[in-house]
Write a structure and sequence with these properties.
The structure is a single chain. The protein has helices at residues 3-18, 29-50, 52-82, 87-111, 116-139. By secondary structure, it is mainly alpha-helical. It is flat and about 50 Å long.
């Protein structure tokens, strides 16, 4: 074990023993609630204009994107606590696997007959809400932080 990896292991052990994770995922509840609200509004619009399958497509599309982002945060947090030197490799591997999973989910949605345009609208709305919401969560000014 090199000095650097011993230092990482010591930090991970310190973090694990103190109950503090090496990396803590930002609070995503407000963003998830916003995504749910947007999905509900778009679902009602879809239901009124194209029927119940459109509403289902929007809701399932939004749900799958939120699950994509939340699972990434969980994986990174879990690995960074146990093996901090593997965080980057785990994050990249998980990203590729989650993209493959999302591709399979999208193909399944198409195979069961969900309207592609409404499912894509759910995907796009969820991505937009997630990026904006998490950007606000992560980059908002912190109390007593002076730039």
């Amino acid at each position: 074990m090199t000095d650097q990896s011993a230092a990482y292991a010591g930090q991970a052990n310190d973090a694990a023993s103190s109950g503090l994770p090496a990396w803590r995922a930002p609070d995503s509840r407000p963003t998830m609630l916003t995504a749910a609200g947007v999905a509900a509004v778009l679902g009602v619009v879809g239901w009124m204009s194209a029927g119940p399958l459109a509403a289902l497509g929007v809701v399932l599309g939004t749900t799958s994107i939120v699950a994509f982002f939340v699972s990434g945060s969980w994986i990174i947090a879990w690995v960074s606590i146990r093996l901090p030197e593997m965080t980057l490799a785990a994050a990249l591997s998980a990203y590729v696997l989650r993209l493959l999973g999302l591709t399979v989910v999208g193909l399944l949605f198409k195979a069961i007959g969900l309207p592609t345009q409404w499912t894509a609208l759910g995907f796009g709305a969820a991505i937009f809400v997630w990026v904006v919401g998490m950007s606000i969560t992560v980059f908002r000014p912190k109390p007593r932080l002076v730039f």
